């Protein structure tokens, strides 16, 4: 079999991928997703309220004032802008 395909390796890889998939399904709880989405909605509301009062705020100020990471603040600003919920602000 010089086709360059090792059936044993392919089977091992497939079994490994199925096992990983089962592990992920075992820890995925729809209730946790709902809780995360609710938390994110509350956080967006908090950011939007802050930006309503301080429209020139950028990600660094948001992170500092609301206790977010800078990357989290950048993400939330971009999300609010993308959804048309906020158009001002700095970087």
How do the strands and helices of this protein lay out in sequence?
Blueprint: H1 7-27, H2 30-53, H3 59-66, H4 70-82
Series of H and E elements: HHHH
> What are the low-pLDDT stretches, counting only 5+ consecutive residues below 50?
none
Helix content: over 70%
Number of alpha- plus pi-helical segments? 4
Please indicate the count of domains.
1
Question: What kind of sheet is the major sheet?
Answer: none
Task: Give the mean pLDDT.
Answer: 82
Q: Give the amount of beta strand, in percent.
A: under 5%
**Termini, distance in Å?**
58 Å
Describe the model.
- This protein is mainly alpha-helical and 91 residues long.
- It has one domain (7-82).
- The protein has four helices and no strands.
- It has helices spanning 7-27, 30-53, 59-66, 70-82.
- The chain starts with 6 loop residues before the first helix and ends in a 9-residue tail after the last helix.
- The mean pLDDT is 82.
């Amino acid at each position: 079999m010089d086709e360059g395909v090792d059936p044993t390796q392919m089977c091992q890889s497939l079994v490994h991928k199925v096992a990983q998939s089962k592990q992920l399904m075992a820890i995925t709880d729809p209730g946790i997703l709902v809780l995360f989405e609710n938390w994110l909605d509350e956080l967006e509301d908090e950011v939007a309220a802050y930006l309503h009062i301080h429209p020139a705020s950028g990600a660094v100020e948001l992170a500092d004032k609301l206790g977010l990471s800078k990357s989290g603040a950048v993400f939330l600003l971009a999300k609010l802008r993308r959804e048309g919920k906020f158009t001002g602000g700095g970087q």
